[in-house]
Amino acid sequence: MTEPQARRDVPSARATLRILMHLAAQRGPVPAQSIATAVGLPRSTAYRLLAVLQEEGFVLHYPELGRYGIGVSAFELSSGFSRQEPLARLGRPILAALVDRIGETAHLAVLHGRDVLYLVEERAPRRPALVTDVGVRLPSHLTASGRALLATLPRSQLRALFPDRTAFAQRTDAGVTRYSELTRLLDRVRADGYAAEDGDVTAGKASVAVAVRDHAGWPAAGIAVTFARETIPPERWPDLAAEVHLHAAELSRRIRGRL
């Protein structure tokens, strides 16, 4: 292929990727016309690219609905993404830099059902071990990272995760116990721009956290810092959260997301 030919092929490659990204962000299959409109393509071009993607297994066609959705090959790509543990690999040096900056332990967690699953922990020098070790799961509504992530979810999804009071597990005497309390807490998280917890996981310990978003704006992970409550009073938490924001933004950039 000559260089001019290669340059002519680039727009098609970009259009194909835009179609896949658009489909991946949808809740279900969508009509070809809406795909063409969303990605700014002529309808004939969109149909042509969808046909190729369908042949290769990246797109499924639902003939009865006249709609298109993500195919198995696209799922295999996402499985490869998971196998390579990109969040942990990309997040570890960012957390190390955050710990060097603030001198407190930091961790990276993802939502896993109603829990958060900890993928990375960077312990600060001369700081004790925490319960947030790698592989540990904790109730999301109790943790700062979990609250930061829950605050990004649609209300319907949040309600599905917490249908009744039995969904609110507790570790200490503190903590959220009802859905109405959770929604008020998450409203405050959105207003403040960061999440916090104060003794809800471990007595005497507090945390602040920020959500990291992916390319579609969905929560990919939460970065949190945990510290002894007596060493950093609440009036200093916004400044601490600002440092976490900077590092969360860098991780979001690295996974081609946004803060």
UniProtKB/TrEMBL annotation:
Determine if Zinc-finger is one of this entry's keywords: no
The IclR-ED domain, residue ranges: 73-257
What is a biological process (GO) this protein takes part in? glycerol metabolic process
**Keywords tagged on the record:** DNA-binding, Glycerol metabolism, Transcription, Transcription regulation
Its domain of life reads: Bacteria
* Any GO molecular function: DNA binding
Q: Does the entry feature the keyword Protease, yes or no?
A: no
Every copy of the HTH iclR-type domain together lies at: 10-72
Function text: May be an activator protein for the gylABX operon.
User: What protein am I looking at?
Assistant: Glycerol operon regulatory protein
| Organism expressing this protein natively | Galbitalea soli
